[in-house]
Amino acid sequence: MTDDFSFMKLAIEEAKKAEAIKEVPIGALIVKDGVVVSSAYNLRETDQRAIAHAELLAIDNACKKLNTWRLTGCTLYVTLEPCPMCAGAIIQSRVDRVVFGATDPKAGCVGSIYNLLSEPKFNHRCEVEKGIMAEECGELLTNFFKQLREKKK
């Protein structure tokens, strides 16, 4: 559990990198055998690509680094509950474990709206740990969107 907090702190640092460039502050890491293999943050606005979510970028980088599309033995740490697209990528890449911070009642597919990572009809399921540093992760998002709304006034 201590490792989960240490790695989530690193994911939060990634989220802060996104925030610094006016991206939605979401950060992600892929960890294997206690070592960070890949880290990423949202780049959807910067790249103008719908798929530039932190989780997808971290998964893609990890696959390249490990030279395999199967990320068995890996844990994905992410500051916000994955959306349906990211949950699908997690399943497809065979990530064994997902640890996330804040829940996403509008798009979360790891328990909030759906629970795709434990759906028995899929050929892969993940262990999930939710709510790690949820307050800190949620605060990043709340503050970001609050500032965004104030700028529009």
Automatic annotation (TrEMBL):
SUPFAM superfamilies listed in its UniProt record: Cytidine deaminase-like
Any one Gene Ontology molecular-function term assigned to this protein's record: tRNA-specific adenosine-34 deaminase activity
Organism from which the protein derives: Anaerobacillus isosaccharinicus
Source organism, top-level taxon: Bacteria
Cross-referenced InterPro entries: APOBEC/CMP_deaminase_Zn-bd, CMP_dCMP_dom, Cytidine_deaminase-like, MafB19-deam, tRNA_aden_deaminase
Residues in the signal sequence: none
Keywords: Hydrolase
EC class (word): hydrolase
PROSITE patterns given in the database record: CYT_DCMP_DEAMINASES_1, CYT_DCMP_DEAMINASES_2
Name recorded for this polypeptide: tRNA adenosine(34) deaminase TadA
UniProt xrefs under HAMAP family: tRNA_aden_deaminase (MF_00972)
Biological process according to GO: tRNA wobble adenosine to inosine editing
Lineage: Bacteria, Bacillati, Bacillota, Bacilli, Bacillales
This enzyme's EC code(s): 3.5.4.33
